Fold:
Amino acid sequence: CAVLCCAVMNHLQSDRHHHHHRPLLIIDSTKEREFNLQKIFQDLERTFPTPPAPVLFIAINRPLLEEHGTLKDESLLATRRQQQQTNLSAVLPDIVDGVNYVAIDNLRTLNAARQNGLWGGTVRVMEFGGAALQGTEFQQALTLVGGMVDYYLATDSVVFIGTPISSFSYQIMASRFHAKKYENYKYLPGGIEKWTNATMKRPEGFFC
Structure:
């Protein structure tokens, strides 16, 4: 089936068909890195008003996100929300007394997207994760096989969005570029920008 793929790497936790059937991949996106999953989803919908596919596949380390994003005392979050409303211009720390509020918000954003979809509910959101390989012949190499699946989906996608400071993201972009797949974008806190085009002789160099 037609798939839209979004791979969000661990930085967020503070791991042939017709062209429109190919997936769209977002990897991780620090001046160069975005931690807010809600903002990533919003920029995705803003940049692509018409979704490339009816299913959004998200590759994200859910066990790690749940480890850091599960809040036992809901009153802590209520207090933080009140602080934000009292002073809208205040920049509150991401982690307070061991509570990772970025992970908490990202986990809730992910779960809401799983339940309600994106693009007004027209795009279904799905995950893969190592748990899907449990009980198979690949269960002894979950990270390796998962990375191979992510790489294949990314290189075969209709649009790729990554960050210029991730070597994994850069290698996908470079592979696509040399395969004459120029719909590659880099994700920055300020939004999504074009990364490659058909007039370039070679992709820009890697930096981090």
